[in-house]
Structure formats: structure tokens, C-alpha cells
TrEMBL record:
Keywords: Lipid-binding. One of its GO terms (molecular function) is lipid binding. SUPFAM superfamilies: DAK1/DegV-like. It comes from the Bacteria. It comes from Natronincola peptidivorans. InterPro entries: DegV, DegV_C, DegV_domain_contain. This is EDD domain protein, DegV family. The lineage of its organism: Bacteria, Bacillati, Bacillota, Clostridia, Peptostreptococcales.
Length: 274
């Protein structure tokens, strides 16, 4: 079985290769110039360009042809494709995959992660592990539906700069937030991104992330926790240390957040998937 996803998944390259996961890239536009995510633009280069830009980058779903090529190759090699994508509530990427599926026919299943970044990536890895164990596609989808309900994704925003640039928040609100050192925390709920709370200061915000993990009231000792960061590795590693100290999980995966979600989170943003 060929597992396919899109470039919003933020799965480290070595894991993509280890599980033979195919990534269909989205497209990024910065200051009028277009880039293919992960191919023509690295994560680090993206944050450099975004910081210098006066506007907010624009993202666009993969072309239908990109999906057609990936699906045809997957069917040719394995006879079966499971394609898992960014929340349909946030992007037209899944719709694009469905269009390609309907054009080709064949044994292709499309699954809506109702999430993004490692919230998507962890589901993709789960599917790849199950496929490696020999699970059939219907069983994998059943397990993914359960897992999709279980996982929680919380995002800390260092600033509202990108929300202002994107027209979603007024400059006045940004000034007030900066004045009182207010840090928004958002989460993914039913496929949408919604504001969860606002906390004064980064230290309190980091403690709040830990508290939310505690409130889940489960053992993390056999679980993988995912962290993605928007060009703030030091903060991500500090959070990793706190999570290990507090919960002793099986693993804490740290990677950079790509342009698709990083565009909205902004530099300094941190995402935790647990």
C-alpha cells in the first residue's frame, strides 16, 4: 500500500523515507514569487523571506496533476493508495485529491485528518506503521478515525503580527497584546483553528501547554509527542525537556513547522500534538 500525504504534514525527511511516504507539495507565494513547498523553498529560507516581507505569504493547494502523478505511481507499484490530508475545513487540498481520485478510479482511499502540521503528520505515521504491520486499508481507516478523535493539537503564538498582516486581527489588538504581553493559544477543534485562551507572558503560556497535557489525564509513557516550531528551536527544546521531565513519554519528536501552517502561526510559534 502506498501512503500519500501533503507538505503540510511536517514529518521529518528521515521518517518519510523510512516509511516510503509520498508527499504532494503545496505552493507558496511570497512577494509575488511562487515556490513549491519543500522543493524550491526550505523551512528556514521560508522564515527568512517571511520576516522580510511586508505582507503575509499565500498558500495554494497542490495541482490536480500532482495528485494524478502520485496516485498513478502508487497504484502501479502497490495496487492500493491511502491518501491523508490537511483538514478540509482549512484547505481545498483534500478536494483536489478527490478530483484526482475520481479522474483515475482504482483502489484509492482519501482520509481527512481534520488537522494540520504534526496533527496530520502523526496520523500519517500511524497509517504507515499499520500498513507495515500488514493491516488492510479499511482497518487502517477505522484506527485512524479513533486516533483522530484522541489527539489534541495546541499552538502557542509568540505574536499577532501575521494575523494583522493577514487582516484577521486589527493593529489595535496587536498593540494591546504587546502592551500587556498577551500570548494567544489556539487549538484545532472539529477541523477548525479556534482561540482557546490568552495568557500573559511566554513562561505562563509554556506552563499552560503542560497543564493541558495533564488535563488529558492519561499515561504518555507509550505515546509519541510531537512538537513543531516556527524557527525557534531553543524554545522547542526547552518544551521538550519539560515534557520528558513531567510525562516520560515514549518519544518527543521535534521538527520545524512548514510554510503551510507556519504562515499563520508566525515566527516564534510552537505546536504540540499529544
Amino acid at each position: 500500500m502506498q501512503i500519500i500525504t501533503d507538505s503540510s504534514c511536517d514529518i521529518p525527511k528521515e521518517l518519510l523515507e523510512a516509511y516510503n511516504i509520498v508527499v504532494v507539495p503545496l505552493n507558496i507565494e511570497i512577494d509575488g514569487k511562487n515556490y513549491v513547498d519543500g522543493i524550491e523553498l526550505s523551512h528556514h529560507a521560508f522564515y527568512e523571506k517571511m520576516q522580510k516581507s511586508s505582507g503575509i505569504p499565500k498558500t495554494a493547494q497542490p495541482s490536480t496533476q500532482s495528485f494524478l502523478d502520485a496516485f498513478k505511481e502508487g497504484l502501479q507499484k502497490y495496487g492500493e493508495v491511502l491518501s491523508i490530508h490537511l483538514s478540509s475545513k482549512l484547505s481545498g487540498t483534500q478536494d483536489g485529491a478527490m478530483v484526482a481520485k475520481n479522474m483515475i478510479g482504482g483502489n484509492i482511499e482519501i482520509f481527512d485528518s481534520l488537522n494540520g502540521s504534526l496533527g496530520l503528520g502523526m496520523q500519517v505515521l500511524k497509517a504507515a506503521q499499520l500498513a507495515k504491520e500488514g493491516c488492510k486499508v479499511d482497518k487502517i481507516i477505522e484506527k485512524l478515525e479513533e486516533y483522530r478523535e484522541e489527539i489534541k493539537v495546541v499552538v502557542y503564538l509568540e505574536s499577532l503580527e501575521n494575523a494583522v498582516k493577514g487582516g484577521r486581527v486589527t493593529k489595535t489588538k496587536e498593540v494591546v497584546a504587546n502592551l500587556f504581553n498577551l500570548k494567544p493559544i489556539v487549538h484545532v477543534e472539529e477541523g477548525y483553528v479556534r482561540v482557546l485562551k490568552t495568557v500573559r507572558g511566554k513562561k505562563k503560556a509554556m506552563k499552560s501547554l503542560i497543564t493541558m497535557m495533564e488535563e488529558k489525564n492519561i499515561s504518555f509513557e507509550d505515546r509519541i509527542i510531537g512538537i513543531t516550531h516556527c524557527d525557534c528551536l531553543e524554545d522547542a527544546m526547552k518544551l521538550k525537556e519539560e515534557i520528558i521531565k513531567k510525562f516520560n513519554p515514549a518519544e518527543v519528536m521535534v521538527t520545524t513547522m512548514g510554510p503551510v501552517i507556519g504562515t499563520h502561526a508566525g515566527i516564534g510559534g510552537l505546536l504540540v500534538c499529544f
